[in-house]
């Protein structure tokens, strides 16, 4: 296949976004297909397993970067399966990419890819880590827990420079090859009062009616109304909140419709970019807190300055993993 642009499958990514906007479904393409191609090439991938195919954009990107690889991708939505197979066929990759229709738990045991890469879905220290790491990320796309909602919540709450001090998590985990939860609720409270609640979509719909509006969303509630933000748009209560003009003396967040340019401008002007490193670090801290809280299924307290759990060695042990020799790092 001749390369005609920096992303030969950008039309499929755009088609996926249109499909998602129209149907409000969980079809969500990765933001950078050429990066996935580069990773697959660097890994010298021969077999790739993807969980969640959507309309085929990711699988095609992997295949483009690793021309000798065979790819198995699993998708439970019949319409997504049909469209993905059409896109893959038009790209001439049907012999290399197989789209399996069904639930992960039912399809995975029958795939030889699972047997050829022992423990690949659990052991991220394997050589397949760069490829499978991205594939597993898509599992969480419909719930939107680990990415944009976390970062947006940190910004809205004016807590960029700190992290939650009280954390409590509950989760139900699959009982098969997958070591991830299918249902979860994590509550993280800041010292100054605000609380961030992370939930899977099914739980979120039971807890807040606004999540019936669509998935991959964040809901900010206050004493006088609420703001619902997702990739489908913004809704508010009262409706006038969406058109209310923020006064010159009121607090403003940084606006940017071009993050790359914003970063370069920040360097030139010696100003904070829209996504400062402190916000990124504390957003990642929230992710680590959430994962540990779900695993331990209880309350914990956090010291933002020490970046450790308070009087909780069991939780602190989970902040790092043993590193295999000869690898090491120092801070």
Briefly, what is this?
By secondary structure, the chain is of the alpha+beta class. 35% of the residues lie in helices and 19% in strands.
Structure description:
The chain has 331 residues and is α+β, with helices and mostly antiparallel strands. It has two domains: 10-140, 3-Layer(aba) Sandwich (Rossmann fold); 148-245 and 255-317, Dihydrodipicolinate Reductase, domain 2, CATH 3.30.360. It contains twelve helices and eleven strands. The strands form three sheets. The chain has a five-stranded antiparallel beta sheet. A three-stranded parallel beta sheet has the order 1-2-3. A three-stranded antiparallel beta sheet has the order 7-8-9, with helices on one face. Residues 113-157 have low confidence and may be disordered.
Oligomer: single chain
Radius of gyration from CA coordinates: 21 Å
Distance between the termini: 45 Å
Number of strands: 11
Largest pleated sheet? 5 strands, antiparallel
How many separate domains? 2
- The helix count comes to 12
pLDDT averaged residue by residue:
78
- Give the CATH architecture of the largest domain: 2-Layer Sandwich
Q: What coarse outline follows from CA principal-axis ratios?
A: globular
Derived from helix and strand composition plus strand pairing, the structural class reads alpha+beta
CATH class of the largest domain: Alpha Beta
Which stretches are poorly predicted, pLDDT < 50 over at least 5 residues?
Answer: 113-157
- What share of residues are in beta strands? 15-25%
**Helix share bin:** 25-40%
Q: What name does the CATH topology of the largest domain carry? A: Dihydrodipicolinate Reductase, domain 2
């Amino acid at each position: 296949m001749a390369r005609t642009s920096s992303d030969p499958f950008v039309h499929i990514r755009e088609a996926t976004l249109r499909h998602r906007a129209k149907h409000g479904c969980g079809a969500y393409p990765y933001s950078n297909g050429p990066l996935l191609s580069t990773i697959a090439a660097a890994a010298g991938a021969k077999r790739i397993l993807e969980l969640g195919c959507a309309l085929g954009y990711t699988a095609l990107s992997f295949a483009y970067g690793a021309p000798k690889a065979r790819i198995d991708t699993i998708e439970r939505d019949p319409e997504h399966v049909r469209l993905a197979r059409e896109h893959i066929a038009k790209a001439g990759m049907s012999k290399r990419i197989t789209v399996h229709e069904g639930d992960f738990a039912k399809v995975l045991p029958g795939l030889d890819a699972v047997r050829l890469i022992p423990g690949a879905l659990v052991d991220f220290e394997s050589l397949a880590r760069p490829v499978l790491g991205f594939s597993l990320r898509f599992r969480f796309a419909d719930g939107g827990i680990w990415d944009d909602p976390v970062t947006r919540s940190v910004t809205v709450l004016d807590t960029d420079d700190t992290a939650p001090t009280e954390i409590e998590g509950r989760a139900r985990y699959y009982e098969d090859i997958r070591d991830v939860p299918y249902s979860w609720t994590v509550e993280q409270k800041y010292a100054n009062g605000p609380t961030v609640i992370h939930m899977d979509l099914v739980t979120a719909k039971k807890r807040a009616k606004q999540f019936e509006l669509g998935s991959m969303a964040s809901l900010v509630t206050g004493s006088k109304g609420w703001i619902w933000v997702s990739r489908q748009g913004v809704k508010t209560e009262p409706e006038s909140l969406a058109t209310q003009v923020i006064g010159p003396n009121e607090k403003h967040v940084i606006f940017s419709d071009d993050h790359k340019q914003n970063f370069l401008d920040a360097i030139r002007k010696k100003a904070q970019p829209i996504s400062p490193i402190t916000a990124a670090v504390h957003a990642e801290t929230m992710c680590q807190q959430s994962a540990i809280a779900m695993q331990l299924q209880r309350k914990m307290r956090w010291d933002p300055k020490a970046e450790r759990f308070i009087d909780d060695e069991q939780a602190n042990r989970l902040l790092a993993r043993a590193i295999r020799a000869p690898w090491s790092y120092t801070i």
